[in-house]
Amino acid sequence: MNRSLAPSKAQCLRRCGAANIARTRLHTIAAAAAPVAGERRAKANIDWDSLGFGLKDVAATMYVAEWTPEKGWDSGKLVPYGPLNMMPSAQVLNYGQAIFEGMKAQESAKGRVVLFRPDQNAARFKAGAARMSMPAVPEDQFVEAVRSTVESNLDYVPPIGKGSLYLRPLLMGTGPILGLGPAPGYTFAIFAAAVGAYFKGGQLTPIDLIVEERFHRAAPGGMGGTKAAGNYSPVLVTQLEAKKNGFSDVVYLDAKTDTYLEEVSSCNIFVVKGKTIKTPPLSGTILPGVTRRSIIELARSRGYDMQETAVSVHEAMEADEIFTTGTAVVVSSVGSLTYRGAKKAYTAPGQAGPVALEMYSALTDIQTEKADDKFGWVYPVK
């Protein structure tokens, strides 16, 4: 691996013991960096009432760890947010060996900062690494790295109800290579930013979707079930065209028959008819969303007939309600769906659908500890 990409030998750790040492080291770093609760948000100088979903209020500190074949993963360190050092020949820049996660830290009703199901993100990150032929980050190191990143950026956690600290873990093949192959070195990084609602209209404002029929997001046997970086830019050509025509986003159909709903560009989709809620099954073409899984469990606990099954576009056009889910969007009500020029409206203008609103309230109440967490999903940070 290029010396500019690798930590010094004194910093490198044998892979077998890295996770435990990483926890000890990061606890020490974070304890020194984290402000006391009474001083939280004093330094960030952020207008909490005008947060958007972007990098305007990027957090000051990020986490970086390096992997080499000889040493495995080092213990990682917290550093000022800034550029990553890599060569133009880095594998990720030439062949796209990269995966990422999306997570949030929030202030809770108990006056502390919490994460939501970070173990699920760690498991998906591990599975994604295997699919992309990258060395997996140990799950306990992943969770501890996320926790320490949050703890060192407590100034950037919005007040309850104002937004969240969005976290972006990345795993990239940063080692230089010319021929196609796995990178000789890897970087695991986490950066964060204070954010508000994902869609411009606001968190609960219904979105208008159009069914995409020219392009497909994924095909059987492909990469649709992996949160790989390369899965996302290809949707821009359809997403930008949809936005130009007044839609919020597009819904993709299955690549085999162009009959069944799969996903929106960056979130899962649910269709409601009476007390039955359906969402497309995980068959390798759909991302196994953490919010998706949580809504499935919540819906069943609240008495809905929750089904993971194929949903045709025609069935969707006859549904009572549609909503989407994801870490960034949380739960977003669909105001209308347009298919081959026909538009089906599901909600009154500006009003969220009742099931979407119910699921959003139930989920966010758990995430912010306004309600009891009987599922054990909440992970305290500070």
Which residues sit in consecutive blocks of at least 5 with pLDDT less than 50? 1-38
Could you tell me the mean pLDDT? Answer: 89
Question: What is the rounded distance between the termini?
Answer: 37 Å
Instruction: Please report the number of helical segments.
Output: 8
| Annotation, overall tally of beta strands | 18
- Helices and strands, in N-to-C order? HEEEHEEEHHEEEHEEEEHEHEEEHE
Q: What structural category characterises the helix and strand content?
A: alpha+beta
Number of domains: 2
- CATH architecture tag of the largest domain: Alpha-Beta Barrel
- Please write the CATH class name of the largest domain: Alpha Beta
The percentage of residues in β strands lies in 25-35%
The CATH topology of the largest domain is given as D-amino Acid Aminotransferase, Chain A, domain 2
Shape: globular
Radius of gyration: 21 Å
Portion of residues within helices:
10-25%
Within CATH, the superfamily of the largest domain carries the name D-amino Acid Aminotransferase, subunit A, domain 2
What profile does the largest beta sheet have?
Answer: 9 strands, antiparallel
Description:
Its cofactor is pyridoxal 5'-phosphate. With 382 residues, the chain is of the alpha+beta class. It contains 8 helices and 18 strands. Helix 1 (18-33) packs parallel to helix 4 and helix 3 crosses helix 4. The radius of gyration is 21 Å and the shape is globular.
